[in-house]
Structures are given as C-alpha cells and as structure tokens.
Amino acid sequence: MKKLIVILLTISFLLTGCGEKDNGLLGDWYYIEDEVAFKISFNKNDKCEIVEDASKEGQSCTYKVNSDEITIKFDGEETKVKYNKKDNYIEINGIKFYNSMDAAKENIKENTIVIPDVKGMTLTEATKKLEEAGLKVGLVTRKYDSNIEEGRVIETLPGAGRRVGKLEEVGIFVSNGEEPELIEDAEIEETE
C-alpha cells in the first residue's frame, strides 16, 4: 500500500509543478488495483492529494517540476514521475495512472499480473513459475497439511487467479506433511 501511495504522490507532483497554468497534468489521474480505485489530484499550487476509493479522506502531497523531471513528495519520500503526453498517462514506479476512470479500467491488465496456480509444486518449481510471471516471492511459511505432500506448495497469498501489482510479493505456504500425533503420558521403561 505504501508503494501505491508513493506512486500516487508522484503523480500529484507531476501535475502541479510544471510551471505552466495547465500543462496537461492538472486534474485527476486514476489507477485501479484489486477493484479499488486510487485517484491523484494535482492543482496549480504544487499541491496534490491521493485518495483511495473515494470512501476515505485523501492524503496530501506536494510536487515540483525541474526541467523535464517531475517529482512528488509524500510521507517524506520523493519519487520521480514520468509523463507520457502522447498516450496520456503518468507512470510512477512502473504503475500507470490515466486521466479518466474508463482509461484506467481499460488498462488494468497492463498494470497487474494474474497469480499463477502453483499448488502441488515444489518450492523451487513454484518460485520459478512466479518469477517467470513477473512476480517476486515473499515470505515462505511451512505448515502441516494432511492433503498436500511434504515439500509441496499448499497455496499462495494472495491466492491463484488474483491480480496483483507488478511490484508485489507473493507469499507461499509449503506443506510439512501430516501433523504428527502427540503421545500423551507415555511410560518409559528404564534399562540398565
């Protein structure tokens, strides 16, 4: 989420700091992830606002334009923004924001990757498949599962088939096999 906020802030900087009254960046820019819309609004006073799904209060940011470089600042971090006037989008950390919600919806596939199904694979096989899809492997957790062979993937988090941002990490749960039974109050014979 912090990466997205930084991206949104970057967009805001681009829109408000270009020196001209309206250089094409001013206004609202949209990005959609997991059915949640994010909006960055740029104004003429080097200020911007990032809003998640219109149901929450926006977070303030600033932007500045130096020569051909646009930078936004949010939560003390600065991020560079690319502005593609020809195709009418701004790009922050590899995520594209569009000047209308319709354009953002049309281009959601460009900004996201569908998590492949790696259930039943070894950790090595699953890692390779996720990386080939353009994803990073995050936390690997081992847990008991009587239905999945030891050393095989139980599931991913987020789950297979979900769309995630290109920069997201995917967690993997690997089976330790069936949980061993505990023997209670076993009597131990002593031998001499």
The H/E string reads HEEEEEEEEHHEHEEEE
Compute the CA-based radius of gyration.
23 Å
Low-confidence stretches: 8-22
Q: Give the helix level as a range of percent.
A: 10-25%
Bin the strand percentage.
35-45%
Q: How much is the average pLDDT? A: 79
Task: Please give the order of strands in the largest beta sheet.
Answer: 1-2-3-4-5-6-7-8
CATH architectural type of the largest domain = Beta Barrel
Contiguous helical run count: 4
Task: Summarize the topology.
Elements: H1 2-16, E1 27-33, E2 36-42, E3 47-52, E4 59-66, E5 69-74, E6 77-84, E7 89-92, E8 95-98, H2 101-106, H3 108-111, E9 112-114, H4 123-132, E10 136-143, E11 153-157, E12 163-165, E13 169-175
Parallel strand pairs: 10-13
Antiparallel strand pairs: 1-2, 2-3, 3-4, 4-5, 5-6, 6-7, 7-8, 9-12, 11-13
How would you sum up this structure in a few lines?
With 192 residues, the protein is of the alpha+beta class. The protein is built from 4 helices and 13 strands.
Descriptive terms for the model:
Trypsin Inhibitor V, Chain A, 4 helices, alpha+beta, eight-stranded antiparallel β-sheet
Structure explained in plain terms:
- The protein has 192 residues and is of the alpha+beta class.
- The chain has 2 domains: 2-111, Lipocalin, CATH 2.40.128; 115-175, Trypsin Inhibitor V, Chain A (2-Layer Sandwich).
- It has 4 helices and 13 strands.
- The strands form 3 sheets. An 8-stranded antiparallel β-sheet has the order 1-2-3-4-5-6-7-8.
- Strand 1 and strand 2 form a beta hairpin.
- The longest helix has 15 residues, at 2-16.
- The N and C termini lie far apart (64 Å).
- Residues 8-22 have low confidence and may be disordered.
